[in-house]
Amino acid sequence: MTTTEVDTKPSPEFYKVRLTHPNHHRRTVFRSVSESRARAFMEKRFPRGSEAYLESPDGTTHHYEAERTGPQGTDAEQWAPFDPDTWIPVAEAPPPGQDEWADKEG
């Protein structure tokens, strides 16, 4: 095999599991060419939501929540689209009811 043959091989595309919190700077904690292996890693390590998200080679992102439920207790989709740019850590999020539409006392 010549060096030109090695240089022309396409590099594999990876599914990446990345940490969401801004302090972690979107660090990749797992990557695989197999989407099912990356999803299994997330289901096992991050079962309750937005601590990490799955980034596909095409740039789409999803997160996994094992205990999501919809209205009237119906099950919601466990793998939902996710936007890491708009996600706010719980410690930095405003308390519930602190927006301009919330009921105020006094």
List the helices and strands and how they pair.
Elements (H helix, E strand, L loop, with lengths): L2 H6 L6 E5 L8 E5 L2 H11 L2 E8 L5 E5 L13 E3 L25
Antiparallel strand pairs: 1-2, 1-3, 3-4, 4-5
Task: Give a description of the structure.
The chain has about 110 residues and is α+β, with helices and mostly antiparallel strands. The chain has one domain. Helices cover about 15% and strands about 25% of the residues. The chain has two helices and five strands, in the order αββαβββ. It has a five-stranded antiparallel beta sheet with strand order 2-1-3-4-5, with helices on one face. Strand 1 and strand 2 form a beta hairpin. The longest helix has 11 residues. It is elongated. The mean pLDDT is about 80.
Using brief descriptors, characterize the structure shown.
106 residues, alpha+beta, five-stranded antiparallel beta sheet, 2 helices, elongated
